[in-house]
Write a structure and sequence with these properties.
Blueprint (H helix, E strand, L loop, with lengths): L28 E8 L6 E7 L2 H11 L4 E5 L1
Antiparallel strand pairs: 1-2, 1-3
Length: 72
């Protein structure tokens, strides 16, 4: 099984304020997301975001090819 981690060298991966995490000073809430990649075991990722849509957007910026969903 492959180690599942953020790949900075991926052509579609992006990072920075407002792209892979919220901008400083923005009001956020904690979210728990399930990140599924085809070549690795599913991973639970906890992050802070403005809303569910933003949380998924931040996950997609980190792992562009993964299926990401918010879980409780």
């Amino acid at each position: 099984m492959t180690t599942f981690q953020w790949n900075d060298n991926h052509a579609q991966a992006q990072h920075g304020d407002g792209i892979s995490h919220p901008r400083k000073g923005v009001k956020t809430k904690p979210f728990k997301l399930l990140v599924r990649n085809q070549q690795a075991a599913p991973m639970i990722w906890r992050t802070s975001a403005e809303n569910k849509t933003a949380a998924i957007k931040y996950g997609k910026a980190r792992w562009p090819e993964a299926a990401i969903e918010v879980i409780k």
